[in-house]
């Protein structure tokens, strides 16, 4: 789709939170634009180094989600991230507390188990994490530990809802180390199906900000690019014919999800471990389905916002063209009136001319004048 840009990615990265939904939504958007993998990784690496220490670990989780979930569609991100991961892990480990380094090591262990990268490269990343020192953090350990526990590593309430929600759930479950044992046994099953009812806080992109950004950045295009804009507009409209909101198949799948994944009270009907595992599998599949669909809807929203910009620019350019054409039309109407008036006067003048056929024959009876040859003849 045509909505990808570095500025859009920077904005999304600035809004990224440590909630799993925020990570998954942005991850799916990035995978959707995987043809820009090189640019995406470059911006990700740049923004990672600029981010506050409390947000750097979230960037690692985003990279993990993108790398693992994009493998089935192509190796673009796996190769692109490989060039910056050593520096990224070294940088984050220097800026992080020991507890967050353990989360990074957990990511690397998952990669090793799933053969995301070869063993030598993963070992290099582990050594980078182990050898990185953070003197600046040691000097301020008393104040930083509390800050990082509250900001960099998610709270126990947030950690609960991040288990078993997608293929990278093991990594996200690493946040759950501070959660109480009494609540952790059912959190992975109940978070998805009861989150809305419990009023849990979730992180969503702020639509008003994007609308404001649209108004600030809008500038009418040069009318000379009209044909190109028309072609792009037609293509954008055609692309929206296959938009996520019109995907009846996926919507039907979501509508046909069993009641067990929507009603927390039905958990009481679980009789044994096998039934609980079956329900857990169903919930995992529902989470993946909804996360992917939400990602597609987010991408569609960006496309529709881009289309709104294009329509605004197109209408503006057409108004400018219309104004020019109306000006020319007025000019040519005036010229037509002048030509019509001249034609009318010319016609009147022709009618007032005498008829030469009615004049007398002024040469009658006279000899014709001699020719030039006769004048110079010797005779």
- Measured between the Cα atoms of the first and last residue, the distance is 100 Å
Percent range for β-strand residues: under 5%
Please give the largest β-sheet: none
The structure class reads: mainly alpha
CA radius of gyration is 38 Å
Helix content: 55-70%
What do we call the CATH topology of one domain? Serine Threonine Protein Phosphatase 5, Tetratricopeptide repeat
Backbone shape: elongated
Low-confidence stretches: 134-224
Number of helices: 18
Give helix and strand order, one letter per element, not per position.
HHHHHHHHHHHHHHHHHH
Q: Which CATH C-level class of one domain is it? A: Mainly Alpha
**CATH architecture descriptor name of one domain:** Alpha Horseshoe
Keywords: Coiled coil, Nucleus
GO cellular component, one term: nucleoplasm
Subcellular location: Nucleus
Family: Belongs to the UPF0400 (RTT103) family.
Any overview of this molecule?
Residues 315-349 form a coiled coil. One of its GO terms (biological process) is mRNA 3'-end processing. Residues 133-216 are annotated as: Disordered. The chain has helices at 6-15, 20-32, 37-50, 53-70, 76-82, 85-95, 98-113, 119-131, 135-139, 141-150, 156-160, 169-172, 181-198, 207-217, 226-239, 248-255, 273-352, 372-375. By secondary structure, the protein is mainly α. Among the domains are: 6-132, Serine Threonine Protein Phosphatase 5, Tetratricopeptide repeat (Alpha Horseshoe), CATH 1.25.40; 225-350. Helices cover 69% and strands 0% of the residues.
């Amino acid at each position: 789709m045509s909505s990808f840009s570095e500025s859009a990615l920077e904005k999304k990265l600035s809004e990224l939170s440590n909630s799993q939904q925020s990570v998954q939504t942005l991850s799916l958007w990035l995978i959707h634009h995987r043809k820009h993998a090189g640019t995406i990784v470059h911006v990700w690496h740049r923004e990672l180094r600029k981010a506050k220490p409390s947000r750097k670990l979230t960037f690692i989780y985003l990279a993990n989600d993108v790398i693992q979930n994009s493998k089935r569609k192509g190796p673009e991100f796996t190769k692109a991230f490989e060039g910056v991961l050593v520096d990224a892990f070294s940088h984050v480990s220097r800026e992080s507390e020991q507890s967050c380094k353990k989360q990074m090591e957990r990511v690397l262990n998952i990669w090793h188990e799933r053969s995301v990268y070869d063993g030598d490269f993963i070992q290099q990343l582990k050594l980078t994490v182990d050898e990185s020192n953070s003197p600046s953090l040691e000097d301020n350990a008393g104040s930083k530990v509390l800050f990082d526990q509250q900001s960099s590593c998610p709270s126990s309430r947030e950690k609960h809802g991040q288990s078993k929600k997608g293929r990278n759930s093991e990594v996200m479950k690493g946040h759950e180390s501070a959660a109480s044992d009494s609540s952790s046994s059912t959190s992975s099953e109940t978070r998805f199906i009861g989150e809305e009812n419990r009023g849990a806080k979730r992180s969503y992109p702020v639509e008003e900000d994007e609308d404001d950004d649209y108004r600030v950045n809008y500038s009418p295009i040069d009318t000379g690019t009209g044909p190109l804009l028309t072609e792009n507009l037609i293509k954008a409209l055609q692309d929206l014919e296959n938009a996520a909101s019109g995907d009846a198949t996926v919507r039907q799948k979501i509508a046909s999800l069993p009641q067990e994944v929507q009603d927390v009270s039905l958990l009481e009907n679980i009789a044994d471990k096998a039934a609980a595992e079956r329900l857990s599998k169903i919930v995992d599949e529902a989470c993946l389905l909804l996360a992917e669909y939400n990602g597609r809807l987010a991408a569609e929203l960006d496309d529709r916002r881009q289309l709104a910009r294009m329509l605004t620019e197109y209408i503006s350019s057409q108004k400018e063209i219309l104004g020019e054409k109306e000006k020319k039309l007025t000019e040519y109407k005036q010229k037509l009136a002048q030509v019509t008036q001249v034609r009318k006067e010319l016609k009147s003048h022709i009618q007032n001319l005498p008829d030469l056929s009615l004049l007398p024959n002024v040469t009658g009876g006279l000899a014709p004048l001699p020719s030039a040859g006769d004048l110079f003849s010797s005779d």
